Amino acid sequence: MKHVIIPALLAGAICLPVSGADWPQYRGPNHDGTSPEKIPTTWPASGLRQVWKTPLNNGFSSFTLGDGKVYTQVTRDFDGGNQETCLALDAATGKELWAVPMGVGSSKYDDGGKSGASGNDGGDGARSTPTYDDGKVYVYSSQLLLKCLNASDGKLVWSCDLLKEHAGKNIRWESAASPLIDGDLLFVECGGAGQALVAFDKKDGHVVWQGQDDGLTQSTPVAATILGQRQVIFFTSRGLVSVAPKTGAVLWRFPFPANGVSAASPVVAGDIVYVTKSYGVGSAACKITKTDGAYAATQMWKVGPDESNQWSTPVVLNGYLYGLFGQAKFGAAPLDCVDLATGAIKWSKPNFGPGGINLVDGNLLVLSDAGDLVLVKATPDAYTELARSHVLAGKCWNSVALSNGRIYARSTREGVSLDMEAIR
């Protein structure tokens, strides 16, 4: 472990609390794609008012927000090679404030950004989304290098190369997982034997616990409270594994074999957990029970690969999943409503592609892979489109961020901020 510790006085000056309006990690404060923001349901033909738009070269990383800044990753030329680079932009203007290369040499993605018949071959690049917490930004590269940076200036606080220090084993198209913070701990998976799952102290980077032998996937873990127990749920090559956050003790497992290309996160709704994997696997839901202190996960239903989420994680409301489904359909992939209790499809609307989806103000905010932002009523009765606007050029294989009345969205070519409180 390499450490670069900043003076205590400076650390105290920049460690600002996260406000309720921040979007500090991938898919929001609770990593469930849900926002408390308000959004108008009627947009003029010109769409939501654009606050700023800025060029952003290759990357599938989403936006996160904290300390008045927007964070993301791009792939940029440093020292003669393409390196994944963490950026901080001014949230009000989109102006770049600092850029920090991950420093692991040229990144290679095995043509992971090719989209075939969709025609949207808009680039490739960094996959992981930075996490903001208490004046720090945590970045996990596709090559399993974890860095903690100062949010104020991007200076290094601590780092860990999990390939070297934890026997990490990467996968085809490399890691896309983002760091998860819950309390004082930061969680990642790296696939190392006996140390596949790792929890770090977020402040100084020391290892709190490590364990298990599961292979890596591209899925970001989630933290949830199920049956009164706080837990962190990883989606590994073996399936779901839930652990006690402070110790790493396994609480339950749900076998769901998957190769590494599994980017969607688990979805938790009460005592039900949904898991999905394209490329020949499918989707399933399991029910978590507890008897005499022991947990168990029992399959409720399972469907085939055509009813799976390729890499976009669904949202859930009132017992229904809403997500972008369909294996390798790219631009034709539909937005579906699925009964979480049975797996039955209630309705399906084609031609969204594997973009991103959020739940805001009781509605679905969907970003298509071609850059259309679409507002849809979150109801199982029928597909009801409320508003639509084309907002980005390039490929959008990520979800948007919502903070302080604004939408922050990006593609492999550009980023945009839109005002949800003022329409033009």
Kindly describe this structure.
The protein is mainly beta and 424 residues long. The chain has helices at 8-14, 162-165, and strands at 2-3, 34-35, 48-55, 64-66, 69-78, 81-90, 96-101, 131-133, 136-140, 145-150, 156-161, 180-182, 185-192, 195-201, 207-211, 222-226, 229-236, 239-243, 250-255, 267-269, 272-277, 282-291, 294-303, 315-317, 320-324, 335-339, 345-349, 356-360, 363-367, 372-377, 385-390, 401-403, 406-410, 414-423. The strands form eight sheets. Strands 1-11-10-9-8 form a five-stranded antiparallel beta sheet.
Write the layout of secondary structure elements.
Elements: E1 2-3, H1 8-14, E2 34-35, E3 48-55, E4 64-66, E5 69-78, E6 81-90, E7 96-101, E8 131-133, E9 136-140, E10 145-150, E11 156-161, H2 162-165, E12 180-182, E13 185-192, E14 195-201, E15 207-211, E16 222-226, E17 229-236, E18 239-243, E19 250-255, E20 267-269, E21 272-277, E22 282-291, E23 294-303, E24 315-317, E25 320-324, E26 335-339, E27 345-349, E28 356-360, E29 363-367, E30 372-377, E31 385-390, E32 401-403, E33 406-410, E34 414-423
Parallel strand pairs: 2-28
Antiparallel strand pairs: 1-11, 3-34, 4-5, 5-6, 6-7, 8-9, 9-10, 10-11, 12-13, 13-14, 14-15, 16-17, 17-18, 18-19, 20-21, 21-22, 22-23, 24-25, 25-26, 26-27, 28-29, 29-30, 30-31, 32-33, 33-34
